Amino acid sequence: MCRHIAYLGPRLALGELLVRPAHGLVRQSWAPRRQRHGTVNADGFGVGWYADGDPVPARYRRSVPIWADPSFPDLARVVRTGAFLAAVRDATQASADGEAAAAPFAFGPWLFSHNGAAKGWPGSLAPLTASLPAVELLSLEARCDAALLWALVSRRLRNGDEPGQALGDTVTEVAEAAPGSRLNFLLTDGAVIAATSWGDSLWYRTGPRQSIAVASEPYDDDPHWFEVPDRTLLVATRADVLLSPLKERPS
């Protein structure tokens, strides 16, 4: 169910991590190595990135497979950034939402992606919508589980939660309402990356000149990739990585 990656570090072309590596996100769209649910991520893709001096990211999203977009290689070759989030999508259910359902979702400086599925969607998450104002429900970009999960996370961010707390509290709340869900979240504002490992794979790699990549799976065979344990919250900056256990709420 989807593959995604976030990066913080020195400015580089998007293609340096998405296209050029032997197992980059483009290849993961049709040949992921560590995806346990689904086989092909062909239901759309997206990338969001930050330009110098502008805290609000730009996004490029399509409903076609990433390999079927003739414009993406040029975009990835010339767009340079020090922070981005990108994803390829394997839809939980068929829908007509098109590119609106493709991550990254956005609000203000934030970019968000979900790798996984909400068990029993949509009925299982219906009770959680009570915390959302009607205008926010009516403003959802798409009618998919990821869009609603993003609404729950972004509500917490609007209320002042730190990114790690917003993700961790949402994961445990959703896991209680829909046991068996896979809830690997990825969130960035261009300065910090927060991510959860809950039911699917998550890896991170620190690099030279204070860089970090957090991804569903490694894009190469470098030995400096580390797998994040299941039920774990990751919060990282260019200089530091913190891992904290996530626990299900008591019954």
Automatic annotation (TrEMBL):
Metal-binding in keyword set: no
The EC number(s) this enzyme carries: 3.5.1.118
Gene3D superfamilies hit by this protein: Glutamine Phosphoribosylpyrophosphate, subunit 1, domain 1
This protein's UniProt keywords: Glutamine amidotransferase, Hydrolase
Keyword Hydrolase: yes
Pathway: Amino-acid biosynthesis; ergothioneine biosynthesis
Domain of life: Bacteria
Reactions that this protein is recorded to catalyse: gamma-L-glutamyl-hercynylcysteine S-oxide + H2O = S-(hercyn-2-yl)-L-cysteine S-oxide + L-glutamate
PANTHER family given in the database record: GAMMA-GLUTAMYL-HERCYNYLCYSTEINE SULFOXIDE HYDROLASE, GLUTAMINE AMIDOTRANSFERASE DUG3-RELATED
UniProt function note: Catalyzes the hydrolysis of the gamma-glutamyl amide bond of hercynyl-gamma-L-glutamyl-L-cysteine sulfoxide to produce hercynylcysteine sulfoxide, a step in the biosynthesis pathway of ergothioneine.
NCBIfam families assigned: ergothioneine biosynthesis protein EgtC
Protein name as annotated: Gamma-glutamyl-hercynylcysteine sulfoxide hydrolase
Gene name of the record: egtC
